[in-house]
User: Fold these one by one.
Assistant:
Number 1:
Amino acid sequence: MMPNELRYLRPDSAEEAVAVWSAHTGARYLAGGTEIHTMARRSASYPVSALIDIKRIAEASALSIAKGRLTLGAALPLSAIADDGAFPLLTATIRGIADRTTRNRLSIGGNIAGMLPYREAILPLLLADALCLSIAPGSGSEPPLRREWRLRERFDKRLLLDPGELILSFSLPLAFAALPWSHRRRTRTGPVDYPLATLCLVRESGGFLLGVSGAHPYPVFASGADGAAALKALGAPKGDQRATAEYRAALMETMLSSALEELS
Ligand SMILES: Cc1cc2nc3c(=O)[nH]c(=O)nc-3n(C[C@H](O)[C@H](O)[C@H](O)COP(=O)(O)OP(=O)(O)OC[C@H]3O[C@@H](n4cnc5c(N)ncnc54)[C@H](O)[C@@H]3O)c2cc1C
């Protein structure tokens, strides 16, 4: 529930942000704030005592290319990343999410660390074996802990963050962004809807990398010598009130087949 008295804090640095988090029980990092506001209004079991706006932290709001790597600040709005276009598969994936006005607000960190199960923006980053830079409060009198880790290593159905851990940025080799790719997205209604399935496919020297959101309870990815092997490795899709498991399985086969045709 949104309390009557809510503290709004705007730290200038990552170290200050985690110090503020440690000092306020029930504090939450805020980027676009769309999910926090919705959850806090709807659910009494989503307590918020303080909002820590991370958009003033320079390294969380920068987009840069250096030493052959693309770095994306976690607080960047989805639309800024899509407009930049340095990672075309990520641009295509982001453009499937919500509408332009909403994407101006949604951040990439919020998409990936948020509660909604789709997290479509994580698919290209998982395929790219992206690195994530984060900072977490130190224990006791220890200083905050900065570390860089492989996104794949801490993604198990969702991103496994420690209490108070703040994502600062994601980075990937530019060479990966140049590999042949294909993107497909199907919804039940029109373009502005959650996906029945979003499929990201990349062809690399050893075969294919495949990521899917919407068809399983969480984003999944796999690799295979051919597309069919990668699809099989993802496991069976889910069935729910929006589509049966059989429908989603058939849909993914059709989407994969047209994506493979595009890459042939
Ligand atoms: C209208 C609408 C349509 C949508 N459609 C889709 C869709 O089709 N596909 C899809 O995948 N998603 C969709 N979403 C979900 C959306 O992408 C995420 O909920 C959104 O990106 C949240 O971003 P935000 O910046 O507003 O997050 P916030 O509300 O600011 O934060 C969300 C959560 O993430 C945490 N957080 C934010 N940034 C960080 C960080 N850097 N480090 C650690 N924790 C952090 C916050 O503390 C909070 O718990 C939709 C959302 C809306 C509102």
Number 2:
Amino acid sequence: MFFLPLYHNLAGARCLVIGAGTTAVRKIRWLLRAEADIEVISPDVSPAIKALANAGKLKVTTAVFDPGQVTPDLRLIISATNNRDVNRFVYDAAIKAGVLVNCVDQPDLCTFIFPAIVDRSPILIAITSMGNAPTLARVVRGWIEAQLSPNLGKLADLARSLRDRVKIELPSVDARKAFWETLFRSAAAESAMQGNLGDAKTKAEAMLTATTSTETGGVPQASVALIGAGPGDPELITLKALRLIQSADVILYDKLANPAILDYARRDAELEFVGKQGPKPGSPPTRPDNRGNQQFSINDAIIGHARAGRNVVRLKGGDPFIYGRGGEEMEQVLEAGFEVIMVPGITAALGAASYAGIPLTYRNLSQSVRFVTGHRVENVVNLDWPEMGRRDQTLVIYMGLVGLPTILAKLIEHGCEVERPAALIENATWPEQRVIVATVSTLADMAAAAEVTGPSVVIIGDVVAKRKS
Ligand SMILES: C[S@@+](CC[C@H](N)C(=O)[O-])C[C@H]1O[C@@H](n2cnc3c(N)ncnc32)[C@H](O)[C@@H]1O
């Protein structure tokens, strides 16, 4: 059996529902949404349906079904009883009167069926298994629901508000199609989906002006998204990150972003690796590195792609604003005149703590958490070591592998007790994650003996002892 999905206008149309239990209520909800004129026929009526009748939403006839109740002015009939004889009776009467009929859970007694519905009105998605596996259709609905912004409908509102202007200003069908495709992946679309229609409209109108202007060569305003990819596990990215990655024209990605996330990109998206190389463990901490120059060329690349009208995703490990130079990149892009969509990610400290089973705060043990960088520790004159070693707090050190012996020695020198629990988490949230649990006095030697070389964070504080290995 093949059912063609058609969207039916039921506003004001007479619809009959036979049965008044929970199944009937589920169907009635959709009929109400469609503003149908509903009559329920049943000898027993559930409180939910009584309440709807009392609220004037539908009419109830307390009676057993009689084929005489089926008249040709009806648009459709739903039989929501679990009595197969009644269902057959309803079906025959409906067919005779030429009225659409659905006997719930009996596809052979249906001329139409209800799909599982994803409702982002006015965007509506119908999913059906043609009556073969309704539960599977509902599971698929869950998968689709998870992919779509709850505010997708606002994007349709934005498009509707611009439709007439776009038709006038872009007479060619191809130009209109290109404009809409760019718009739906732009910062204007993001504003709409955040519920800010006014801002969305201003941005969209600026895009339209740029598209029709000879000054810009018809290149519409592109968007740049700075996205946190999380510490490794690809399932730790946000739904917003996923959506933007799926619609990007070009993705500039870091060494620390899991390349598996790139599988979500469009097949024709350009993927550009722009990882920076920092000092390796064992190399002198004062070794000059080239990351400043590398950062300039990353900024240039982002802006270059945006100027060419592409939707750019800059995918960074962890969170862009935590030791990720996201602030600098954001400033540069804004200065170049482009919108920036910031998408937070799970920073390494949070991923490492959760996946290692170390709570970062704990009542009576740690009331605050401090994130510090151990990068170039020899040059850092402003680290307040007595503060770093205070009890009742958790210290998380990023980029602390190279300077680990020095950092731990400084902590001890400034009063941190040698037995304070400390842990190093290497490759946090990746399958190859390693956790070394020690104390402030033993961690550096244990890390050296374990030949740790991957990205690592160090957690220091009594909370480390809460880990159940
Ligand atoms: C340049 S910082 C980037 C931090 C990133 N923006 C974040 O929010 O996690 C690089 C440092 O982050 C830490 N890091 C990043 N990913 C990590 C992971 N999967 N496991 C442990 N540490 C990680 C390490 O300390 C590494 O040296």
